[in-house]
Amino acid sequence: MTERAYFDWNATTPLRAEAREAMLAALGQPGNASSVHAEGRVARQAIEKARLQVAALAGADAKNVIFTSGATEANMLALTPALETVGGKAPRDRLFVSAVEHPSVRSGGRFPSDKVEILPVDANGIVDLAALKATLARAERPLVSVMLANNETGVIQPIADIAAIVHAANGLLHVDAVQGAGRIDCDMTALGADLMSLSSHKLSGPQGVGALLRRDGIHIAEPLIRGGGQERNLRAGTENVAAIAGFGAAAEAADRARQADALRMAALRDRFEAALKAQTPAAVIFGGNAGRLPNTTLFAAPGLKAETAIISFDLNGIAVSSGAACSSGKVQISSVLTAMGVEDDLARGAVRVSLGWTTTVADIDLLLNAWMRVASTLLKSHANAA
Ligand code: PMP
After folding, report:
1. Residue 186 known to be catalytic
2. Residue 328 pLDDT class (50, 70, 90 cuts)
3. Residues 264 and 243 occupy one common structural domain
4. Which of 53, 78, 154, 191 could form an SS bridge with 293, CB 3.0 to 4.6 Å?
5. Which domain holds residue 318?
6. How far is CA 114 from CA 107, 109, 111, 147, 335, in A?
7. Is 150 left (phi over 0), alpha (psi -120 to 50) or beta?
């Protein structure tokens, strides 16, 4: 088989050894965490350890971590009018989400669609702060949802500035930190986030588990899933102990390695981008001049079609994706790029390279060799056709 290299870490990541070990240990135990017997207490202990580990990653209090089936569910749980604060029980009257949010946020959660507004972004996909300030004046108790870093471009939002504007407008801020967590600092207090969503499988934990974190004093009056009293009555259903344990172990490992990993990834990413530009001067790197995650490059070249480029990369041993992987294998024009004002023709060719803590220089060289072959066939056929 051809040598392969994986560059789709923003879609999902390989499991860390620490996570696998924690999962295997939990899978070897029979207990239900709600049972009072010794076996139940072992399961409970595994969950509470993970709660501390996940809380530490985001500077939250462990009691404010709600485990869910993933960030999609965490986003749905957070985006409800029924958010109460100390001394404030009236429902949130409007939801504002940025134009570059993940579909699970853009769908508006549990708000009626006529109460959801889209916040405009600039050419880098960054929320327009003046527009935000003006827009929030239209609500009495707004809820705002802005992601920490974009899954397609890696562009980082000025969350602390956004939080200051939101709080001055009597609002609450939810931050989808799925792509930032474990890659950049995601301390909730420093960011000023009232609620934060995390996903285990983007930080080398297992798939199918995530968490919603809240700051002290935020109460979610309407759970999404009712039943038994698990997760402080906020998420019913027997906990997936092994997945939660794996998430906790991965969060701790990612947090410990974060700064060293980020430096290494940024150097590899820069090596790739410099070579890409040297080889294909017409290539455009989206959000290239903005602050970005250390691991993400979204690029296009005139004439490139993402669908064929991705297949061609795959045949050359390289796993990359078009902007978003979440649309069941379909390559559509990315709504993120449209919101950034990118022309449809260029956006159709957007290829996302996202790397991770196991990526090596040799992997980058494989990627560049593959790009040389992809570009020489696909871009040549464009030149001939023109
Ligand atoms: N938000 C962002 C920014 C994402 O990238 C993703 C995963 N594609 C999600 C939310 C959804 O996470 P999960 O897969 O855990 O439901």
Report:
1. no
2. low
3. no
4. 154
5. 5-13+258-385
6. 12, 12, 8, 22, 20
7. beta
- 325 CA closest ligand 1 atom index: 8
pLDDT band with cut points at 50, 70 and 90 for residue 326: very low
Beginning with the edge strand found earlier in the chain, give each strand of the sheet holding 284-285 in spatial order.
284-285, 296-300, 351-354, 321-322
- Is 294 near ligand 1, meaning CB less than 6 Å away? no
Q: What is the CATH number of the domain that holds 297?
A: 3.90.1150.10
Decide which of 193, 223, 252 is a domain's last residue: 252
User: Residue 73: exposed, middle, or buried by beta-carbon count in 10 A (0-12, 13-18, 19+)?
Assistant: buried
Give phi and psi for 319, each to the nearest 5: -95, 110
Query: What is the structure's pLDDT at 310?
Result: 96
Compute, in angstroms, the gap from residue 75 CA to the centroid of ligand 1. Answer: 9
242 & 302 share domain: no
Which DSSP symbol is given to 157?
P
| 170 HSE (CA, 13 A, CB side) | 14
Residue 1: which residues within 8 A CB-CB, separation 6 or more? none
The DSSP letter of residue 11 is T
| Probe target for ligand 1 pocket from 75, 100, 107, 151, with the most ligand atoms within 8 Å of CB | 151
Q: Which of 216, 237, 252 is the last residue of a domain?
A: 252
Q: Which of 62, 55, 146, 136 is nearest to 98 (CA)?
A: 146
**Single pTM value for the model:** 0.96
Q: Which tokens belong to 154?
A: 């890696």
The pLDDT of residue 43 is 98
80 in the same domain as 215:
yes
Q: Which of 225, 319, 326, 368 is catalytic?
A: 326
**Distance between CA atoms of 311 and 321, rounded to whole angstroms?**
9
How far is Cα 13 from Cα 358, in angstroms, rounded to an integer?
Answer: 10
To which residue do tokens 């709080």 refer?
A: 167
Taking residues 229-240, report their average pLDDT. 97
Dihedral sign, CA of 242, 243, 247, 250?
A: positive
Q: Where are the beta strands (DSSP E) in 15-160?
A: 65-68, 83-84, 94-98, 116-119, 142-145
Mutate to test the pocket of ligand 1, among 68, 104, 183 (most ligand atoms within 8 A of CB): 104
Q: How confident is the model at residue 385 (pLDDT cuts 50, 70, 90)?
A: low
CA distance 326 to 56: 29
